[in-house]
Amino acid sequence: MAIPIRISPLCRWTGRTLSSLSAGHRREVSLSAKRRFICTSTGNHLQFRLNERTAHSSLDLFKKDTGIIYRMLGLDPSQVQDDPERFREWAVVLGDKKISSERHYWEVTVKKSQEFRLGVAEAVMSRDECVGTSSSSWVFGYAQRKWFAMTGSKVVPVTLVGKPDRVGILLDYDAGFVGLVDIEKPRIIHTLRARFTAPVCPAFGLWDGEILTHSGLEEPEGLK
């Protein structure tokens, strides 16, 4: 069983400050971009775009606000439209849908990134905090070639080695968990338990490269 580790805050504005996580016991899981088990659905599955109003000035949105690219220097904050919804300190952006019930699934393609976070955060979380260090967020992160699960500055190593091209995120609001999904199997690799008390949004942190979101997907069969 993984032991939660309390470490110094892992977020940073434009530099890198991720502390090492204990290696623990890991086994490799192959994550492929192949879509054998997932199909696009026209049903009432969650569809969202990224909310530009929340995007930190170092993040640019593209592909009709479904993708994020990190800019090392970013924009001068004075050149970005002032908006109380915008993250002011950390390279974070939220999805534009608030979720307060039921079960939802989406996927993320990772391109040329060695440091990112994927999960959910309360829609009203402080814009001066970062996803993962805030107790109002639940995320899976990748940094220093390691995966981890994080909420409220508590870090748990995830038993996954290697860098994926594409992963899934499963949110069950009513059951109280967020899962990281291997889309190749498919199966849930790791879950973060939560007691949700407010609406949450898909949440993303990015500190290099780019990621692309895929929503409106059917949940793979067999996920518990």
Automatic annotation (TrEMBL):
Q: Which domain of life is it from?
A: Eukaryota
Record's InterPro entries? B30.2/SPRY (IPR001870), B30.2/SPRY_sf (IPR043136), Butyrophylin_SPRY (IPR003879), ConA-like_dom_sf (IPR013320), E3_ligase_FN3/SPRY (IPR050617), SPRY_dom (IPR003877)
**B30.2/SPRY domain span:** 28-222
Membrane-spanning residues: none
Q: Which SMART domains match?
A: SPRY
**Family annotation (Pfam families):** SPRY
Question: What is this protein's name?
Answer: SPRY domain containing 4
The source organism is: Xiphophorus couchianus
